[in-house]
Amino acid sequence: IFTTQNKGFGFSSGLGTGTTTGTSGFGTGLGTSGLGGFGGFNIQQTQPGLFGQQAQQPGQAQPTQLFQQVTALSAPTLLGDERDAILAKWNQLQAYWGTGKGYYSNNNPPVEFTQENPFCRFKAVGYSCVPVTKDEDGLVVLVLNKKEADVRAQQQQLVESIHKILGNNQTLAVNVDGVKPLPNDQTEVIIYLVERSLNGTSKRIPATTLFSYLEQANIKAQLTQIGVVMSATRTELSPAQLKQLLQNAPAGVDPIIWEQAKVDNPEPDRLIPVPMVGFKELLHRLQIQEQMTKQHQTRVDIISNDISELQKNQATTVAKIVQYKRKLMDLSHRVLQVLIKQEIQRKSGYAIQVDEEHLRVQLDTIQSELNAPTQFKGRLNELMSQIRMQNHFGAVRSEERYSVDADLLREIKQHLKQQQEGISRLISVIKDDLEDIKLIEHGLSDGGHMRGGILS
Fold it and tell me: Where does the record place the Nup54 C-terminal interacting domain (predicted)?
Protein backbone atom coordinates (compact mmCIF):
# COMPACT_ATOMS: atom_id res chain seq x y z
CA ILE A 1 0.00 0.00 0.00
CA PHE A 2 1.38 3.35 -1.06
CA THR A 3 0.61 6.75 0.43
CA THR A 4 2.18 9.71 -1.38
CA GLN A 5 1.41 13.16 -2.60
CA ASN A 6 0.81 13.80 -6.30
CA LYS A 7 3.59 15.54 -8.19
CA GLY A 8 3.11 17.77 -11.25
CA PHE A 9 3.23 16.05 -14.62
CA GLY A 10 4.71 19.12 -16.29
CA PHE A 11 1.57 20.63 -17.82
CA SER A 12 0.13 23.86 -16.51
CA SER A 13 -3.57 24.32 -16.07
CA GLY A 14 -3.63 26.48 -19.22
CA LEU A 15 -3.15 23.37 -21.38
CA GLY A 16 -6.75 22.43 -20.78
CA THR A 17 -8.16 25.52 -22.43
CA GLY A 18 -10.79 24.98 -25.04
CA THR A 19 -12.82 27.49 -26.95
CA THR A 20 -13.83 29.34 -23.82
CA THR A 21 -11.57 29.19 -20.75
CA GLY A 22 -9.04 27.16 -18.75
CA THR A 23 -9.22 23.80 -17.06
CA SER A 24 -8.74 22.46 -13.59
CA GLY A 25 -5.33 20.75 -13.68
CA PHE A 26 -4.31 18.44 -16.54
CA GLY A 27 -2.41 15.32 -15.43
CA THR A 28 -0.16 14.36 -12.53
CA GLY A 29 3.19 12.63 -12.02
CA LEU A 30 3.81 9.30 -13.76
CA GLY A 31 6.10 8.12 -10.97
CA THR A 32 3.66 8.57 -8.09
CA SER A 33 1.38 6.01 -6.59
CA GLY A 34 -1.63 8.08 -5.54
CA LEU A 35 -4.30 6.33 -7.56
CA GLY A 36 -7.09 8.84 -7.71
CA GLY A 37 -5.62 12.37 -7.66
CA PHE A 38 -5.42 15.03 -10.33
CA GLY A 39 -2.74 17.67 -10.80
CA GLY A 40 -3.51 21.13 -9.56
CA PHE A 41 -5.30 19.92 -6.39
CA ASN A 42 -2.55 17.85 -4.68
CA ILE A 43 -4.97 15.41 -3.08
CA GLN A 44 -3.49 12.76 -0.78
CA GLN A 45 -5.18 9.40 -1.04
CA THR A 46 -4.50 5.99 0.47
CA GLN A 47 -5.49 2.45 -0.22
CA PRO A 48 -7.65 0.50 0.28
CA GLY A 49 -10.20 2.79 1.91
CA LEU A 50 -10.40 5.15 -1.09
CA PHE A 51 -11.25 2.34 -3.47
CA GLY A 52 -14.19 1.28 -1.36
CA GLN A 53 -15.48 4.85 -1.34
CA GLN A 54 -15.09 5.30 -5.08
CA ALA A 55 -17.02 2.16 -5.77
CA GLN A 56 -20.06 3.68 -4.07
CA GLN A 57 -19.88 7.14 -5.66
CA PRO A 58 -22.15 8.02 -8.59
CA GLY A 59 -20.77 8.43 -12.07
CA GLN A 60 -17.92 5.89 -11.60
CA ALA A 61 -17.42 2.53 -13.36
CA GLN A 62 -19.47 -0.51 -12.44
CA PRO A 63 -18.52 -1.99 -9.01
CA THR A 64 -17.38 -5.30 -10.51
CA GLN A 65 -15.15 -3.63 -13.05
CA LEU A 66 -13.81 -1.17 -10.49
CA PHE A 67 -13.10 -4.04 -8.08
CA GLN A 68 -11.13 -5.80 -10.82
CA GLN A 69 -9.16 -2.63 -11.56
CA VAL A 70 -8.41 -2.08 -7.86
CA THR A 71 -7.32 -5.69 -7.47
CA ALA A 72 -5.00 -5.42 -10.49
CA LEU A 73 -3.49 -2.22 -9.06
CA SER A 74 -3.10 -3.25 -5.43
CA ALA A 75 -3.06 -7.04 -4.92
CA PRO A 76 -2.62 -9.16 -8.05
CA THR A 77 -2.27 -12.92 -7.39
CA LEU A 78 -1.04 -14.02 -10.80
CA LEU A 79 2.40 -15.39 -9.82
CA GLY A 80 2.05 -15.87 -6.07
CA ASP A 81 5.44 -14.39 -5.11
CA GLU A 82 7.24 -11.05 -4.82
CA ARG A 83 6.83 -10.50 -8.60
CA ASP A 84 3.16 -9.67 -8.02
CA ALA A 85 4.28 -6.38 -6.38
CA ILE A 86 6.22 -5.48 -9.56
CA LEU A 87 3.18 -6.46 -11.63
CA ALA A 88 1.02 -4.19 -9.45
CA LYS A 89 3.33 -1.26 -10.14
CA TRP A 90 3.21 -2.04 -13.84
CA ASN A 91 -0.59 -2.13 -13.75
CA GLN A 92 -0.60 1.18 -11.89
CA LEU A 93 1.55 2.70 -14.61
CA GLN A 94 -0.81 1.41 -17.30
CA ALA A 95 -3.80 2.75 -15.39
CA TYR A 96 -2.11 6.15 -15.11
CA TRP A 97 -1.59 6.56 -18.84
CA GLY A 98 -4.93 4.92 -19.69
CA THR A 99 -3.98 2.08 -21.98
CA GLY A 100 -3.00 -1.58 -21.71
CA LYS A 101 -4.22 -4.74 -19.96
CA GLY A 102 -3.91 -5.46 -16.27
CA TYR A 103 -3.30 -9.13 -15.34
CA TYR A 104 -4.17 -9.91 -11.75
CA SER A 105 -5.44 -13.49 -11.53
CA ASN A 106 -5.07 -16.82 -13.29
CA ASN A 107 -8.78 -17.52 -13.05
CA ASN A 108 -10.01 -14.18 -14.41
CA PRO A 109 -9.32 -12.40 -17.70
CA PRO A 110 -7.19 -9.26 -17.59
CA VAL A 111 -8.89 -5.92 -17.05
CA GLU A 112 -8.75 -3.40 -19.90
CA PHE A 113 -7.36 -0.01 -18.94
CA THR A 114 -8.81 2.89 -20.95
CA GLN A 115 -8.53 6.62 -20.54
CA GLU A 116 -11.98 6.59 -18.93
CA ASN A 117 -10.78 4.57 -15.95
CA PRO A 118 -10.82 6.61 -12.70
CA PHE A 119 -7.05 6.32 -12.18
CA CYS A 120 -5.98 7.78 -15.55
CA ARG A 121 -3.99 10.97 -15.01
CA PHE A 122 -4.48 12.52 -18.48
CA LYS A 123 -7.77 14.22 -17.63
CA ALA A 124 -8.90 17.76 -17.16
CA VAL A 125 -12.08 19.80 -17.05
CA GLY A 126 -12.74 22.70 -19.40
CA TYR A 127 -15.76 24.89 -20.02
CA SER A 128 -18.06 25.22 -23.01
CA CYS A 129 -20.89 27.61 -23.78
CA VAL A 130 -24.41 26.48 -23.02
CA PRO A 131 -26.58 26.35 -26.20
CA VAL A 132 -29.22 29.07 -26.29
CA THR A 133 -31.28 28.00 -29.30
CA LYS A 134 -34.61 26.30 -28.67
CA ASP A 135 -35.94 23.06 -30.05
CA GLU A 136 -38.53 25.05 -32.02
CA ASP A 137 -35.74 26.74 -33.97
CA GLY A 138 -35.00 23.38 -35.57
CA LEU A 139 -31.21 23.82 -35.86
CA VAL A 140 -29.31 20.62 -36.62
CA VAL A 141 -25.52 20.52 -37.05
CA LEU A 142 -23.98 18.42 -39.82
CA VAL A 143 -20.21 17.89 -39.81
CA LEU A 144 -18.86 17.26 -43.31
CA ASN A 145 -15.47 15.82 -44.12
CA LYS A 146 -14.86 18.61 -46.65
CA LYS A 147 -13.16 21.99 -46.72
CA GLU A 148 -15.20 25.13 -46.18
CA ALA A 149 -14.44 26.49 -49.66
CA ASP A 150 -15.70 23.27 -51.28
CA VAL A 151 -18.85 23.27 -49.15
CA ARG A 152 -19.64 26.89 -49.99
CA ALA A 153 -19.02 26.26 -53.68
CA GLN A 154 -21.36 23.23 -53.64
CA GLN A 155 -23.87 24.54 -51.09
CA GLN A 156 -26.81 24.39 -53.50
CA GLN A 157 -25.97 20.80 -54.49
CA LEU A 158 -25.71 19.90 -50.79
CA VAL A 159 -29.14 21.37 -50.08
CA GLU A 160 -30.63 19.49 -53.02
CA SER A 161 -29.01 16.23 -51.88
CA ILE A 162 -30.38 16.62 -48.33
CA HIS A 163 -33.82 17.44 -49.74
CA LYS A 164 -33.63 14.32 -51.89
CA ILE A 165 -32.66 12.23 -48.85
CA LEU A 166 -35.69 13.66 -47.00
CA GLY A 167 -37.94 12.27 -49.72
CA ASN A 168 -38.25 15.16 -52.21
CA ASN A 169 -41.32 16.41 -50.36
CA GLN A 170 -42.46 19.64 -52.03
CA THR A 171 -43.87 20.98 -48.76
CA LEU A 172 -40.43 20.81 -47.10
CA ALA A 173 -37.61 23.24 -47.73
CA VAL A 174 -34.02 22.80 -46.50
CA ASN A 175 -32.33 26.03 -45.38
CA VAL A 176 -28.71 26.64 -44.38
CA ASP A 177 -28.31 28.79 -41.26
CA GLY A 178 -24.52 28.97 -41.28
CA VAL A 179 -21.27 27.42 -42.50
CA LYS A 180 -18.17 27.33 -40.26
CA PRO A 181 -14.75 25.71 -40.79
CA LEU A 182 -13.47 23.11 -38.36
CA PRO A 183 -9.99 21.65 -37.79
CA ASN A 184 -8.68 18.79 -39.95
CA ASP A 185 -10.34 20.20 -43.11
CA GLN A 186 -13.86 19.63 -41.83
CA THR A 187 -16.83 21.96 -42.06
CA GLU A 188 -19.84 22.52 -39.83
CA VAL A 189 -23.13 23.20 -41.63
CA ILE A 190 -26.20 24.24 -39.62
CA ILE A 191 -29.51 23.48 -41.33
CA TYR A 192 -33.19 23.74 -40.47
CA LEU A 193 -36.29 22.40 -42.17
CA VAL A 194 -39.34 24.52 -43.01
CA GLU A 195 -42.70 22.89 -43.70
CA ARG A 196 -45.24 24.84 -45.77
CA SER A 197 -48.90 23.93 -45.50
CA LEU A 198 -51.52 24.27 -48.20
CA ASN A 199 -53.06 27.37 -46.63
CA GLY A 200 -49.79 29.28 -47.03
CA THR A 201 -48.49 29.11 -43.47
CA SER A 202 -45.07 27.72 -42.66
CA LYS A 203 -43.33 26.40 -39.56
CA ARG A 204 -39.98 24.93 -38.65
CA ILE A 205 -39.59 21.24 -37.93
CA PRO A 206 -38.29 20.78 -34.34
CA ALA A 207 -34.64 19.93 -34.08
CA THR A 208 -35.24 16.70 -32.17
CA THR A 209 -37.69 15.46 -34.81
CA LEU A 210 -35.29 16.19 -37.66
CA PHE A 211 -32.35 14.68 -35.77
CA SER A 212 -34.29 11.48 -35.02
CA TYR A 213 -35.11 11.12 -38.71
CA LEU A 214 -31.51 11.71 -39.78
CA GLU A 215 -30.24 9.13 -37.26
CA GLN A 216 -32.14 6.29 -38.93
CA ALA A 217 -29.79 3.68 -40.37
CA ASN A 218 -30.78 4.06 -44.02
CA ILE A 219 -30.86 7.86 -43.83
CA LYS A 220 -27.52 7.98 -42.03
CA ALA A 221 -25.97 5.82 -44.73
CA GLN A 222 -27.17 8.22 -47.43
CA LEU A 223 -25.78 11.19 -45.47
CA THR A 224 -22.43 9.41 -45.19
CA GLN A 225 -22.31 9.17 -48.99
CA ILE A 226 -22.45 12.97 -49.32
CA GLY A 227 -19.67 13.45 -46.74
CA VAL A 228 -21.59 13.82 -43.45
CA VAL A 229 -19.58 12.26 -40.62
CA MET A 230 -21.64 13.44 -37.65
CA SER A 231 -24.96 15.12 -36.86
CA ALA A 232 -26.22 16.71 -33.66
CA THR A 233 -28.94 19.00 -32.40
CA ARG A 234 -28.21 22.49 -31.17
CA THR A 235 -30.83 23.02 -28.50
CA GLU A 236 -30.73 24.56 -25.06
CA LEU A 237 -30.75 22.41 -21.95
CA SER A 238 -33.74 22.45 -19.68
CA PRO A 239 -33.14 23.30 -16.00
CA ALA A 240 -33.71 19.64 -15.08
CA GLN A 241 -31.22 18.42 -17.70
CA LEU A 242 -28.66 20.99 -16.64
CA LYS A 243 -29.07 20.06 -12.98
CA GLN A 244 -28.70 16.35 -13.72
CA LEU A 245 -25.60 17.04 -15.84
CA LEU A 246 -23.94 19.02 -13.07
CA GLN A 247 -24.92 16.69 -10.22
CA ASN A 248 -23.39 13.51 -11.62
CA ALA A 249 -19.69 13.48 -12.42
CA PRO A 250 -18.86 11.95 -15.84
CA ALA A 251 -17.41 8.46 -16.03
CA GLY A 252 -13.78 8.38 -15.00
CA VAL A 253 -13.76 11.88 -13.45
CA ASP A 254 -13.23 12.15 -9.73
CA PRO A 255 -16.25 13.75 -7.98
CA ILE A 256 -13.92 16.04 -6.05
CA ILE A 257 -12.46 17.36 -9.29
CA TRP A 258 -15.96 17.78 -10.71
CA GLU A 259 -17.13 19.73 -7.68
CA GLN A 260 -14.04 21.93 -7.82
CA ALA A 261 -14.65 22.56 -11.52
CA LYS A 262 -18.18 23.72 -10.77
CA VAL A 263 -16.87 26.08 -8.10
CA ASP A 264 -14.23 27.51 -10.48
CA ASN A 265 -16.77 28.12 -13.28
CA PRO A 266 -16.22 31.80 -14.23
CA GLU A 267 -19.74 32.22 -15.67
CA PRO A 268 -22.16 29.59 -14.36
CA ASP A 269 -25.04 31.12 -16.33
CA ARG A 270 -23.26 30.77 -19.68
CA LEU A 271 -20.70 27.99 -19.25
CA ILE A 272 -20.83 24.36 -18.21
CA PRO A 273 -17.86 22.14 -17.22
CA VAL A 274 -16.83 19.62 -19.86
CA PRO A 275 -14.41 16.73 -19.19
CA MET A 276 -11.39 16.33 -21.43
CA VAL A 277 -9.90 12.84 -21.45
CA GLY A 278 -6.63 12.22 -23.23
CA PHE A 279 -4.32 14.33 -25.33
CA LYS A 280 -6.45 13.89 -28.44
CA GLU A 281 -9.34 15.71 -26.80
CA LEU A 282 -6.96 18.39 -25.56
CA LEU A 283 -5.51 18.80 -29.05
CA HIS A 284 -9.00 18.94 -30.52
CA ARG A 285 -10.02 21.78 -28.21
CA LEU A 286 -6.75 23.58 -28.91
CA GLN A 287 -7.38 23.32 -32.66
CA ILE A 288 -10.91 24.62 -32.20
CA GLN A 289 -9.56 27.53 -30.19
CA GLU A 290 -7.02 28.35 -32.91
CA GLN A 291 -9.77 28.12 -35.52
CA MET A 292 -11.96 30.50 -33.55
CA THR A 293 -9.02 32.87 -33.12
CA LYS A 294 -8.51 32.92 -36.89
CA GLN A 295 -12.21 33.59 -37.44
CA HIS A 296 -12.13 36.43 -34.91
CA GLN A 297 -9.03 37.89 -36.58
CA THR A 298 -10.69 37.64 -39.97
CA ARG A 299 -13.76 39.41 -38.63
CA VAL A 300 -11.55 42.08 -37.04
CA ASP A 301 -9.80 42.61 -40.40
CA ILE A 302 -13.16 42.96 -42.13
CA ILE A 303 -14.32 45.47 -39.52
CA SER A 304 -11.03 47.38 -39.91
CA ASN A 305 -11.49 47.55 -43.69
CA ASP A 306 -15.07 48.71 -43.20
CA ILE A 307 -13.88 51.43 -40.81
CA SER A 308 -11.25 52.60 -43.33
CA GLU A 309 -13.88 52.70 -46.07
CA LEU A 310 -16.26 54.62 -43.82
CA GLN A 311 -13.51 57.11 -42.98
CA LYS A 312 -12.89 57.67 -46.70
CA ASN A 313 -16.60 58.13 -47.29
CA GLN A 314 -16.76 60.55 -44.37
CA ALA A 315 -13.90 62.63 -45.79
CA THR A 316 -15.62 62.68 -49.20
CA THR A 317 -18.91 63.65 -47.58
CA VAL A 318 -17.28 66.49 -45.63
CA ALA A 319 -15.70 67.80 -48.84
CA LYS A 320 -19.05 67.64 -50.62
CA ILE A 321 -20.74 69.43 -47.73
CA VAL A 322 -18.19 72.27 -47.97
CA GLN A 323 -18.70 72.41 -51.72
CA TYR A 324 -22.47 72.51 -51.35
CA LYS A 325 -22.17 75.27 -48.73
CA ARG A 326 -20.19 77.38 -51.17
CA LYS A 327 -22.68 76.65 -53.89
CA LEU A 328 -25.53 77.55 -51.53
CA MET A 329 -23.86 80.88 -50.71
CA ASP A 330 -23.38 81.62 -54.42
CA LEU A 331 -27.01 80.77 -55.17
CA SER A 332 -28.11 82.90 -52.21
CA HIS A 333 -26.22 85.88 -53.63
CA ARG A 334 -27.77 85.30 -57.04
CA VAL A 335 -31.24 85.07 -55.54
CA LEU A 336 -30.55 88.27 -53.61
CA GLN A 337 -29.55 90.07 -56.81
CA VAL A 338 -32.71 88.88 -58.52
CA LEU A 339 -34.81 90.07 -55.58
CA ILE A 340 -33.07 93.46 -55.64
CA LYS A 341 -33.82 93.93 -59.34
CA GLN A 342 -37.39 92.77 -58.88
CA GLU A 343 -37.86 95.14 -55.94
CA ILE A 344 -36.44 98.03 -57.94
CA GLN A 345 -38.86 97.36 -60.80
CA ARG A 346 -41.77 96.91 -58.41
CA LYS A 347 -41.18 100.21 -56.60
CA SER A 348 -40.19 102.19 -59.67
CA GLY A 349 -41.77 105.67 -59.45
CA TYR A 350 -42.50 105.51 -55.72
CA ALA A 351 -40.89 107.78 -53.19
CA ILE A 352 -38.33 106.33 -50.81
CA GLN A 353 -40.05 105.06 -47.70
CA VAL A 354 -38.90 105.55 -44.14
CA ASP A 355 -37.76 101.97 -43.59
CA GLU A 356 -35.85 102.06 -46.87
CA GLU A 357 -34.13 105.24 -45.77
CA HIS A 358 -33.10 103.60 -42.47
CA LEU A 359 -31.85 100.60 -44.41
CA ARG A 360 -29.83 102.85 -46.74
CA VAL A 361 -28.24 104.62 -43.76
CA GLN A 362 -27.30 101.28 -42.22
CA LEU A 363 -25.82 100.06 -45.50
CA ASP A 364 -23.80 103.25 -45.88
CA THR A 365 -22.50 102.83 -42.35
CA ILE A 366 -21.50 99.23 -43.03
CA GLN A 367 -19.88 100.23 -46.34
CA SER A 368 -17.87 102.97 -44.67
CA GLU A 369 -16.71 100.55 -41.98
CA LEU A 370 -15.67 98.03 -44.60
CA ASN A 371 -13.82 100.64 -46.67
CA ALA A 372 -11.92 102.02 -43.68
CA PRO A 373 -8.12 101.50 -44.14
CA THR A 374 -7.75 99.65 -40.86
CA GLN A 375 -10.93 97.56 -41.23
CA PHE A 376 -11.84 94.43 -43.10
CA LYS A 377 -11.40 95.58 -46.69
CA GLY A 378 -7.92 96.98 -46.07
CA ARG A 379 -6.84 93.83 -44.27
CA LEU A 380 -8.35 91.69 -47.01
CA ASN A 381 -6.46 93.60 -49.69
CA GLU A 382 -3.25 93.24 -47.70
CA LEU A 383 -3.82 89.48 -47.35
CA MET A 384 -4.60 89.17 -51.06
CA SER A 385 -1.38 90.98 -51.99
CA GLN A 386 0.65 88.74 -49.69
CA ILE A 387 -0.97 85.63 -51.13
CA ARG A 388 -0.22 86.78 -54.67
CA MET A 389 3.40 87.47 -53.76
CA GLN A 390 3.76 84.06 -52.15
CA ASN A 391 2.21 82.40 -55.16
CA HIS A 392 4.53 84.36 -57.45
CA PHE A 393 7.66 83.47 -55.50
CA GLY A 394 6.53 79.88 -55.14
CA ALA A 395 5.95 79.62 -58.89
CA VAL A 396 9.39 81.10 -59.61
CA ARG A 397 11.12 78.75 -57.19
CA SER A 398 9.34 75.64 -58.39
CA GLU A 399 9.52 76.74 -62.06
CA GLU A 400 5.88 75.90 -62.52
CA ARG A 401 3.54 77.45 -65.06
CA TYR A 402 1.46 80.41 -64.06
CA SER A 403 -2.13 79.74 -63.14
CA VAL A 404 -4.34 82.58 -64.43
CA ASP A 405 -7.90 83.15 -63.35
CA ALA A 406 -10.51 82.71 -66.06
CA ASP A 407 -11.82 86.30 -65.75
CA LEU A 408 -8.28 87.73 -65.80
CA LEU A 409 -7.43 85.59 -68.81
CA ARG A 410 -10.51 86.90 -70.60
CA GLU A 411 -9.45 90.48 -69.89
CA ILE A 412 -5.92 89.78 -71.15
CA LYS A 413 -7.31 88.30 -74.36
CA GLN A 414 -9.56 91.32 -74.84
CA HIS A 415 -6.63 93.72 -74.29
CA LEU A 416 -4.39 91.84 -76.71
CA LYS A 417 -7.18 91.80 -79.26
CA GLN A 418 -7.55 95.57 -79.00
CA GLN A 419 -3.77 95.99 -79.34
CA GLN A 420 -3.80 93.81 -82.42
CA GLU A 421 -6.65 95.80 -83.94
CA GLY A 422 -4.77 99.07 -83.25
CA ILE A 423 -1.62 97.74 -84.88
CA SER A 424 -3.64 96.58 -87.91
CA ARG A 425 -5.18 100.04 -88.30
CA LEU A 426 -1.77 101.69 -87.94
CA ILE A 427 -0.38 99.43 -90.66
CA SER A 428 -3.29 100.30 -92.98
CA VAL A 429 -2.75 104.03 -92.37
CA ILE A 430 0.95 103.68 -93.17
CA LYS A 431 0.13 101.79 -96.35
CA ASP A 432 -2.29 104.56 -97.40
CA ASP A 433 0.35 107.20 -96.68
CA LEU A 434 2.89 105.28 -98.76
CA GLU A 435 0.45 105.17 -101.66
CA ASP A 436 -0.12 108.93 -101.38
CA ILE A 437 3.64 109.55 -101.32
CA LYS A 438 4.05 107.44 -104.43
CA LEU A 439 1.33 109.43 -106.21
CA ILE A 440 2.98 112.69 -105.19
CA GLU A 441 6.35 111.54 -106.42
CA HIS A 442 4.81 110.36 -109.66
CA GLY A 443 3.03 113.71 -110.11
CA LEU A 444 6.23 115.61 -109.44
CA SER A 445 8.14 113.56 -111.95
CA ASP A 446 5.46 114.13 -114.63
CA GLY A 447 5.47 117.93 -113.98
CA GLY A 448 9.24 118.14 -114.49
CA HIS A 449 9.06 116.47 -117.86
CA MET A 450 6.33 118.84 -119.01
CA ARG A 451 8.33 121.94 -117.95
CA GLY A 452 11.37 120.70 -119.79
CA GLY A 453 9.42 120.26 -123.00
CA ILE A 454 7.99 123.71 -122.83
CA LEU A 455 11.35 125.34 -122.19
CA SER A 456 12.96 123.50 -125.05
Answer: 402-440
